[in-house]
Design brief:
mainly alpha, 225 residues, 2 domains
Length: 225
């Protein structure tokens, strides 16, 4: 029985010829993503009925091509998702810093305590405990401590702390503040409390001092800061 196929006809087993991603003729010889682009152009060429330059490609079925395309689109989606997450994280970091600076420089009690320390007028007087000044100093230490907690929680990188390194170290290195904290340490021990007062403030202060306090180096000219 005749098959009905005229002599000389070349019957292709796959009605839509699809190619592999490797070729010695130039197509598919590049590295990703170039080889994908080259393969897609060759596939479109074969789909339109032309095969010049694509004869050496091995056949691939439609399912394999769809998997490749799905991978490409998924990769693009992941890229944009990662970009959006990074942008959102940077925006939140900027907001944290902005909120801290706003609360620091707009709080009258914090500023009064800070300027006493900055101008070396705070020496931890004997009548300090129970005074209004103690409340202002506590408020200042808590404000700096809250900023330190953001870093310790992984929400702020150490580089962002450098934005307030001067104000932070002015307070952290003050001898009056250190004496006050030492007294609080002893007070905690007498009450059998296993914790350090203003612990986050002290941990970050030590790190900032180690990184940025260079007493033996010459000062930086104002024009180069």
């Amino acid at each position: 029985m005749s098959s009905g196929i005229p002599p000389g006809c070349n019957v292709q087993p796959n009605p839509i010829p699809v190619v592999s991603l490797r070729s010695t003729t130039g197509y598919g010889s590049g590295k990703p993503p170039a080889y994908l682009i080259q393969g897609i152009f060759c596939y479109r060429k074969l789909f339109s009925g032309r095969s010049e330059g694509c004869e050496v490609y091995q056949a691939m079925n439609m399912e394999e091509w769809l998997k490749i395309l799905a991978t490409i689109f998924a990769s693009i989606g992941l890229f944009f998702t990662a970009f959006q997450i990074r942008a959102s994280t940077q925006q939140k970091r900027a907001q944290y810093v902005s909120d801290f600076l706003k609360s620091f420089w707009s709080d009258q009690a914090i500023l009064e305590a800070y300027y006493l320390i900055e101008y070396s007028k705070f020496h931890y007087p004997e009548d300090f405990h129970g005074s209004d000044l103690e409340k202002k100093v506590d408020r200042l230490l808590e404000c700096l401590g809250s900023f330190a907690k953001l870093h310790r929680a992984g929400l702020l990188p150490f580089e962002d702390l450098s934005l307030v390194r001067y104000e932070y170290l002015v307070v952290y290195q003050n001898e009056g503040i250190r004496k006050y904290i030492q007294v609080l340490d002893e007070w905690y021990k007498t009450r059998c409390i296993e914790a350090r007062p203003f612990d986050e403030f002290r941990i970050v202060g030590e790190a900032l001092e180690k990184r940025y306090y260079k007493p033996n180096q010459p000062s930086i000219p104002a024009s180069s800061r």
